[in-house]
Specification:
about 270 residues; disordered N terminus
């Protein structure tokens, strides 16, 4: 128990530190906006329905997605392990109906939010990459018990073979970082000056974990021509290169490219 409490404290503190800068370093950047736009274009089950859905968001960060779902009149419960992230999200969403909670997703079934059933469980931009393989498997199984029949688990994760990351670090002669994602072990990743233990997953890894409770709907690349956010200040985001890669990103939906992107979206349906 002591080990779990320590791990929870450490993970929370990692993102508490990053909370105040997250919107500036990702949410409000060209790269962050482009990748989120690609995610939204693939959330048809949320954005194109007239039905009022009940959505549980895990690792909501500063609340950007929760507020977007709220605009569409859905009932949103948004959670994050970081108290600072949740406080910022609450401030941004003070005039909305979003219900925010501090929650470690490893304890999903122990929290009061587990007493409800959801149409959608959603997690964006790699928050779940902080889960080890065993924790990820347990999380997926736990969500099956919280979803309504035919409910969907939608996750945006970081894969193992990011093309941009390999190219960028190879050009710099840093071959260790060029292939750092391609492992089943935790990698220490810099998040706004804080080292965060991170595990990477390809779509096939999630497919092996989904068990008989879920069927696959789709998976698509997010950030295949648009690069990772640490390249925001590079020449890549300048005209005319940015216009070209931004346009290309809109039209690339091939699943086989998902493991080469910065992120990928995978959508599972409860059987």
């Amino acid at each position: 128990m002591a080990v779990k409490k320590y791990a929870k404290y450490r993970m929370s503190s990692f993102f508490d530190i990053a909370a105040t800068t997250y919107d500036n370093t990702f949410t409000n950047t060209k790269i962050g906006k482009a990748q989120r736009e690609k995610v939204y274009r693939n959330l048809q089950s949320i954005f194109l329905t007239s039905e009022k859905l009940t959505i549980l968001e895990v690792n909501c960060g500063t609340g950007e997605d929760a507020l977007e779902f709220d605009k569409r009149n859905h009932k949103v419960v948004a959670t994050d392990i970081s108290e600072n992230m949740v406080e910022i999200a609450k401030h941004k969403g003070k005039n909305t109906h979003v219900d925010f909670h501090v929650l470690d997703c490893n304890a999903l079934s122990e929290h009061p939010v587990s007493k409800s059933k959801y149409d959608i469980i959603f997690s964006n931009f790699g928050g779940l990459n902080c889960l080890s393989y065993k924790e990820m498997q347990d999380f997926i199984q736990a969500t099956a018990g919280l979803l309504k029949p035919s409910g969907k688990l939608i996750m945006v994760l970081m894969p193992k073979n990011c093309f941009w990351e390999r190219l960028y670090f190879s050009i710099k002669g840093n071959f260790k970082n060029a292939t750092r994602r391609n492992t089943n072990d935790a990698v220490s990743v810099n998040v706004d000056g804080t080292k965060v233990p991170t595990w990477y997953y390809n779509p096939k890894d999630i497919m092996l974990m989904k068990n008989k409770k879920f069927s696959l709907v789709k998976y698509i690349p997010i950030g295949i021509s648009v690069p990772p956010s640490y390249l925001e200040k590079s020449f890549i985001t300048k005209f005319p290169i940015w216009n070209i890669i931004y346009t290309i990103e809109k039209y690339i939906h091939f699943g086989f490219l998902a493991k080469y992107a910065d992120h990928f979206l995978i959508e599972l349906r409860k059987r």
